[in-house]
Structure to design on (131 residues):
């Protein structure tokens, strides 16, 4: 299998895993702490807005290449296997039926909140450093 094909397969698996976590957030048997992690990961993974914009050289793709896969992997590993199997089946069915990932409006809010908090922290630091 060529590298490009492996990369496309990996990206499809990450998309499916993000949708799996989306169903895992709603599953009654998902532990509360795992559910909270899933909510954060899903909100960011399915958000149309990135934490680090893609137009920033190298750093722009860092969240998609490292941060997001690591968070998805951790959430998948912490989810009970019975819940994971059921949610993965639902995710595969969803992706086949809809042909796309769901979108997360909460993800936009999450990313905007992080940026606002970072700007506020930077502004506060500058005010303290200068005065």
């Amino acid at each position: 299998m060529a590298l490009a094909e492996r990369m496309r397969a990996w990206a499809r698996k990450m998309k499916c895993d993000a949708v799996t976590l989306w169903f895992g957030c709603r599953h009654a048997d998902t532990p509360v702490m795992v559910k909270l992690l899933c909510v954060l990961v899903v909100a960011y993974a399915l958000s149309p807005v990135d934490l680090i914009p893609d137009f920033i050289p190298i750093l722009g793709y860092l969240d998609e290449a490292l941060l997001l896969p690591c968070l998805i992997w951790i959430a998948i590993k912490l989810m009970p296997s019975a819940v994971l199997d059921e949610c993965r089946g639902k995710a595969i069915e969803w992706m086949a039926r809809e042909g796309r990932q769901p979108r997360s409006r909460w993800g936009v809010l999450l990313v905007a909140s992080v940026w606002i908090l970072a700007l506020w922290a930077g502004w506060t630091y500058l005010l303290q450093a200068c005065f």
Summary: The radius of gyration is 17 Å. The helical segments are 3-26, 32-45, 62-78, 81-98, 105-130. The first helix runs from residue 3 to 26.
